[in-house]
Structure formats: structure tokens, C-alpha cells
Please model this.
Amino acid sequence: EANLKVLHLEDMIVNIAGSDNRGSNRFLKIKVSLVYDDYDGETVVSRAAYIRDAFQDYLRNVDESDIAGTFGLFKLRSDLLVRAIAVIGNESPREVLIQELIIQ
Model:
């Protein structure tokens, strides 16, 4: 059985493109945690800043319409998980949890 742990990342605030087709910008505030298998937990914790940076790079390229609805949130979690796995270099990251997501 996997020994899963949770890494809480600092809140992130980024500009994203609005969905009104007028070039407007919105602020996205997101609070995420990363569920990971502790077999490589030291690496996950030590690379938290790199994970956060990869997440922010991705989020800056998201449009408001990209994260709308259930499918949008599923895709967002999936895309963030892909980036966490790439940063860590193995399958230790298992899931991205979104505690808070605000678009203003």
C-alpha cells in the first residue's frame, strides 16, 4: 500500500486572459496541494519551489474559458499533475488537489 503524503503549496496569483474576447485580463488565485507517494518524498519537498514555478508558467497561459466547468477543472488538475511529474522526474506525484480557485 502506498504511503501518501500531501504537500501544500503557497497560494498563487497570476493574470489570465478573460473570456469576453476583448483582450481583458483577469486575476486567477489558486491554492493547490500535491498528493505524492512518500517513496521519494524528500525529492518532492526539496523541489516544491520548482513545482510551483512550473504551475505558474502553465497558469499564465490559461484562458478563463480553459478552466470553466467540470471538464475545465479536471483538465487543469491533470495538466498540473503532468508538470509536477516532469519536475520530480518520476511517478511519485499522484494527484493535484484544488482547495481554492478564484477568478476576478
The chain has a mean pLDDT of 92. The helical segments are 41-46, 48-59, 69-88. The chain is about 35% helix and 35% strand.
